[in-house]
Amino acid sequence: MTHPGAGTDPSTTPDEESFPIRVEFEGAVWDIRAFRGEPLLDAAERHGLRLPRTCRQGWCTKCAARITEGRAEHSSARRFYQADEDAGFALLCSARALSPMRVVAGQHPAFREHRIRNGLPVPRT
Description:
Layout (H helix, E strand, L loop, with lengths): L17 E8 L2 E8 L4 H7 L17 E6 L2 E2 L8 H5 L2 E3 L4 E2 L3 E5 L2 H10 L8
Parallel strand pairs: 1-7
Antiparallel strand pairs: 1-2, 3-5, 3-7, 4-6
């Protein structure tokens, strides 16, 4: 199910580079656009989609998602590791699209398990 009106963004102009992003969350699908350099969480909120998040700094991992298509960069994340990227995870508060993408949001429990298995830092909550 794609939400009506999803993907329409009056603040996007043709001369500003942006990428189409398909977000799956709690059984729904949202089609949005993210500007180059814009955190995916900010793009989702600009389109009216509220996703799990707490710190907005890549620290708490509440915004963890899986990237199923496309690429993102995490240079501004406080705590994101190559092993996280290799496992297909993203932290939406700090991930910035490098291409069109598909992401599955709400992956905090799976992300915690991944971190524990790989001996990486895990937030207490």
